[in-house]
Structures are given as C-alpha cells and as structure tokens.
Amino acid sequence: MGHAPTTPSTVSNAPIPTYFTLNPSAPTVSGTNVILATSHHLELDSSQIPTGRIIPHPYAPTEANTPFTLFPRDPSFDDCFVLPPRSSPPNNWDGIAGSVPPDTRPLPLRTMVKMSHPDTGLVLVVQSTEPAFQFYTGEGIDVPTLETGDGGWVERMGSRKGIAIEPSRFVDAPGRAEWRGMCTLTKGKREVWGSRNVYRAWKE
Fold it and tell me: Could you say which residues of the chain have pLDDT below 50?
C-alpha cells in the first residue's frame, strides 16, 4: 500500500452555493426585499483578492438589518459579508478571525439574510453558525433552455434571475496567516471541520 505525503495541516474552506428566487415567473429578482444582518464586508483589491480589511459596504445600508429593494439592474453585489464578532464589543472587527473554530456547529445559529417578495408573499430566512456569507445578485447567470429527463423543458435563466447566499468562512482564509486558523485542521489533533446552515421559507 502506498503512502501519500502530508503537511502539518489540512485546509478546508468549503462554502455551499445556493441560489434562490422568490418570484419564479419573473425574469429577474427585481422587487425582492432584502435584509442583511451586517453592513461590513471583506474589502477587495483591483484583482478581487481580499486586502485583509473589514469595512462597510458602499452599496449596502449603513445600518445592519435595514431593508432595501433590488431593482432590475441594481444594486449589484458579489461580496463576502462578515457578521459582527460574537464577543463584545460588537464592532471590534480586529481579531475576529481568530475567534472562529474549525467546527462552528456547537455555536448558536445567527440570521444572515432575510428576503421577501410582495408579488408572491414568499419569505426566506438563512441562518448559520458561520462567520460570513457570500451575497451575489446573479449578474453572471446565463443558463440556456434545457430539456428535462421526462421530456419537459426548463426555461432559459439570464442575468439576475437568482440570488446566491453562501454561508462560509472568509474568502482567501487559507492565503492569509491571520485568517488561516478558521479553516485549518492541525495534523495530530482530533479536529473536525463543520458548520450548520438552516434555510427557512414560507408564504405570508
């Protein structure tokens, strides 16, 4: 039996991309009302790589949990939003990454995003034990009309047809020493990488 070489640690950073639309018959997500549990995100450089700074998003409401509405073309998001630190003070963003264990499942769930649509009455709430989430308004969606196995058809889906909400660790956490602990399993320790995500939907 052969042996694979190992390093002192193993990196795991596995977000789960999930797309939603609360008005399936509409061509875009226009009219969707959104509430984000944070206004802060990972700042990106010109190459779309995180700089290491956690700052307010220029297009999100200044105050967290403030409703806003998506329109046919704006606002546009494809960003990693960061929830406030679990420990006090709540706005002390320095060192937040060091408080995130590889296995977040024992931690209490926190609401990340709430969305609703007035035309359908559908409501979606996303909760997780993770410290961050990618929020993407789907500008790059381009799925052609597809035939299903039973002879039916799925209509083409274009730009802004769905919204992706991905509970996660920080983007590029493996590449930054100050963030690496949240996604690293140390060799020789009985460590587990894990998270809990809950998606709740209903019609009002």
Answer: 1, 3-4, 6
On whether the CB atoms of residues 186 and 96 are closer than 8 A, the answer is no
Read off the pLDDT of residues 106-159 as tens digits, 9 standing for 90 and up: 999 999 999 999 999 999 999 999 999 999 999 999 989 988 888 888 888 899
CA distance linking residue 3 with residue 51, whole number of Å? 38
Q: Which of 6, 11, 31 is nearest to 21 (CA)?
A: 31
Residue 117: CB atoms within 10 Å: 21
DSSP secondary structure string for all residues of the chain: -------SEEE-------EE-S-TTSSS-TT-EEEES-SEEEEE-TTS-EEEEEEE-SSS-SSTT--EE--SS-S--EEEEEPPPSSSSTT--TTGGGG--SB-TTSPPEEEEEEE-TTT-EEEEEEESSSEEEEE--TT--B--EE-TTS-EE--B-TTS-EEEEEES-TTGGG-TTTGGGGEEETTS----B--EEEEEEE-
